[in-house]
Amino acid sequence: MLFTKQVSEPIKNAEVFADILEDVFSCIPGAYEYDVLSDEQINGLHKRTVEITDESGDKIAEVEIYCYPVGDEYAVEVELLDGKPSALFTVYTAQEAAEKWGLAEVTVRQWIYRGKFRANEARKSAGTWLVTHDGMVRVAGKLKTEEEMNMYLSDNPVVDKYLRLALQNPETPFIYDNAKVFNIKRLYDFVADHAKTENIVFEEVLKEAINSEGCYEMPSWMTRSGKPECIYFDREDEIDNETYDVTTIIKFR
């Protein structure tokens, strides 16, 4: 992840997109020009892939920019696919490192106090402990991939990112086809807690839940307990008075 930010308008707004690109350029030394390689939208998620070149026209980086509605604003995430960012973006606060590795902040601080980090991997700045990415990898290990957790969000990379953003912003409903899903993280946590089967695709579980009536039942062959496990949800249909389109509202309990 290169950076995240909140914006008031979606990235199809030229001024908003220009501001985001300005931030991108500040993160990549030598950035001079850009070219939009692809522009995709799926439900509420907007993704643009952008190539960054230097003053001589040589490619130096490639980024993906994601924009997703969160309440009355939009969340933007920028991922670096290729290239080298400024050194500033390979350093985390103790809290950021803890969140990224799924640890308690006190754990990272204790590692610092006990001397687990080398002198060039951790230091204090204005009262805040900073650690490098390489230092965290050496001490805590590499970040777990979805393959290692035996669950994928989706085989479609755009849906995958859309689901990832929805899980990070649980107060915002996840829009999928004609369904609006609230509390989707409860379904994700349910699957993570109960499933034993390898290589589960979360999107497929979500589809089954959407097509169920008030309860998604995980079959016994998928569960760690060897018994069927259920998660319940409220379901109702909402009809648009002008278009008569039907939206299914699902709220996981």
Overall morphology: globular
- Give the strand tally: 15
> Which strand order spans the largest sheet, edge to edge or round the barrel?
1-5-4-3-2
The main sheet comes to: 5 strands, antiparallel
How helix-rich are the residues, as a percent range? 25-40%
The SSE string, one letter per element, is EHEEEEEHHEEHEHEEHEHEEE
* Helical/strand content category: alpha+beta
The portion of residues forming beta strands comes to: 35-45%
> Measured on Cα atoms, how large is the radius of gyration?
21 Å
**How many helices in DSSP terms?**
7
Please give the alpha-carbon distance between the first and last residues: 31 Å
Overall domain count: 3
**Low-pLDDT residue intervals, each spanning 5 or more residues:** none
Question: What is the averaged pLDDT score?
Answer: 86
Give the structure's gist in a few sentences.
This protein has helices spanning 14-27, 94-101, 105-113, 133-140, 157-168, 184-194, 202-210, and strands at residues 3-7, 33-42, 45-53, 59-70, 73-83, 91-93, 122-125, 128-132, 151-152, 174-176, 179-182, 200-201, 215-218, 229-239, 246-252. With 253 residues, the chain is an alpha+beta fold. The longest helix is centred in the first third of the chain and has 14 residues, at 14-27.
Structural summary, described in words:
With 253 residues, the chain is an alpha+beta fold. It has three domains: 3-83, Nuclear Transport Factor 2, Chain: A (Roll); 87-140, Arc Repressor Mutant, subunit A, CATH 1.10.10; 151-252, no CATH class. Helix content is 28%, strand content 36%. The strands form four sheets. A five-stranded antiparallel beta sheet has the order 1-5-4-3-2, sandwiched between helices. Strands 10-11-15-14-13 form a five-stranded mixed beta sheet. Strands 6-8-7 form a three-stranded antiparallel beta sheet. The protein starts with a strand and ends with a strand.
